[in-house]
Amino acid sequence: xxxxxxxxxxxxxxxxxxxxxxxxxxxxxxxxxxxxxxxxxxxxxxxxxxxxxxxxxxxxxxxxxxxxxxxxxxxxxxxxxxxxxxxxxxxxx
Length: 93
Hints:
93 residues, alpha+beta, so0334 like fold, two-stranded parallel sheet, globular
């Protein structure tokens, strides 16, 4: 009985870990760099965006499933107004 419970817990743990890796592997990534970015860029690693305003527009307009990971390079970012990232639930309304 103890061995059976241990095996079940092990399989559940492995499943959760693998699920996290799959989620991270399928997450959309947007790169932002205040120094070398340009808001005309697609927001990929080699061609990052420059501002959070453009990043917000891309995130909120995205119809890709799963989370969006925003990778921000060090730098000074001027944010002139409040930015709001909408959830997938909000986009379905």
